[in-house]
Amino acid sequence: MKKLTSLLLNYFYIISISCAVGLMGSYALGRLFEYKIHNESFDISLRTYYINQLKDRYTLCILDYSINPNGKDMLKECEKIELKINLNKKKLIDEAPYYSFYNKHFR
What pTM did the predictor assign? Predict the structure, then answer.
C-alpha cells in the first residue's frame, strides 16, 4: 500500500510540474505574441501614413495633369506613384504575419 501511495505521489508531482511548465510556456508565448503584434501595428501605422501621403501626391499629380494634359512625363510620374502605392499596400499585408494572424483568428 505504501508503494502504491508513493507511486501516486510521484505521478502527481510529475503531472503538477508538467502543468506548471506548460502554463509558464504558454504565458511566455502569449506575451511574445503580444509584443510582436504591438511592433507590427506600429509599423503598419507608419506604412499607412506613408501610403496616404502617396495617395495625396497621386491626387495632386492627376489634378496637375488634368490642368495641363500636354505633359506626358507628368502622366508617367503619376503611374510611378500609383505603382508605389500598390507595392506598399502589398508589402503592408505580406510583411505583417502576426498582425494578420491576429486579425484572422481573434477578431
Answer: 0.65
